[in-house]
Design goal:
By secondary structure, the protein is of the alpha/beta class. It is built from 11 helices and 9 strands. A 6-stranded mixed sheet has the order 1-2-3-4-6-9, with helices on both faces. The radius of gyration is 19 Å and the shape is globular.
Length: about 260
């Protein structure tokens, strides 16, 4: 059966920027079969949007997400998880494989699987009322959607062990202090700031923003020599594009540039 989205995950566009909106606030935007299927369907459509240049992820309601639906966990088995886990991990890894920037804004409860969703994004913005936790160990599990991997790379081994193994809950300021989020804003400003940042980046030349993202991701995974070699290749390419000429011309002409991705 063809998967569709729109019931609990909405999508809106303004020019080159898209906004993904979790819209199941009555159930705390929990992650279950419907959530995952709608997310997968939306991601497949996003891949067809050649003119999309940035994404924002936000949630309706007082809380971003309470994480995995415990009813969903009641029905899982080792066989079911084994068959689906590669696909499931791909859903949360999708944001890093995209060539465009992905900004996420989180508020209120952000637990478990929702934290793993956040970890796959490029820039994380927290509302002042954020309460963040990875409680999987208490439930007889360990994070399996990138939590142990991405969290460790982001905040270091010690902090990852504290959050995952001790299941400690932290707030926005502590998340900022350990490098788990990049910015903290008032609750009422969260959506505006998140979408505005995505819109800002959607106005940059597509090639340069894509190479910047890939170069940073590569630097996290590889040697300095490999990173520098990538910088040489991307610089050679970018210096031959029409967009670099347009950017410089617009600067001198004191006008808004118009980028094509070429």
């Amino acid at each position: 059966m063809e998967r569709k989205y729109g019931e609990i995950i909405k999508f809106e566009r303004q020019d080159y920027c898209g906004a993904i909106i979790l819209d199941n606030a009555e159930k705390l935007n929990v992650v279950g079969d419907d959530f995952l299927n709608e997310l997968g369907a939306l991601q497949q459509e996003i891949l067809t949007m050649e003119d999309l240049r940035a994404l924002a992820i936000v949630a309706n309601g007082d809380n971003f997400s309470a994480g995995i639906d415990l009813k969903f966990l009641q029905e899982v088995s080792s066989e079911k998880v084994k068959a689906a886990l590669t696909w499931l991990q791909g859903l949360y890894g999708f944001w890093q494989t995209l060539s465009i920037p992905v900004v996420i804004g989180v508020q209120g409860f952000c637990f478990g699987s929702a934290v793993e969703l956040m970890l796959g994004c490029d820039i994380r913005i927290a509302a002042e009322n954020l309460r963040l936790s990875l409680p999987e160990v208490k439930l007889g599990l360990s994070p399996d959607m990138g939590g142990t991997t991405r969290l460790t790379k982001l905040v270091g081994t010690g902090q990852a062990k504290r959050l995952i193994m001790a299941c400690e809950e932290i707030g926005a300021q502590e998340a900022l202090q350990i490098g788990l989020v990049e910015k903290v804003v008032p609750v009422e400003k969260l959506r505006e700031v998140t979408i505005r940042l995505a819109q800002r980046m959607s106005g940059f030349p597509p090639s340069s923003i894509a190479f910047a993202k890939k170069g940073i991701n590569l630097a996290e995974e590889s040697s300095v020599a490999a990173g520098l070699l990538f910088e040489q290749a991307q610089s050679t390419y970018c210096c031959g594009t029409k967009d670099i000429k347009e950017a410089i011309s617009a600067f001198f002409d004191k006008r808004k540039p118009s980028f094509t991705g070429n």
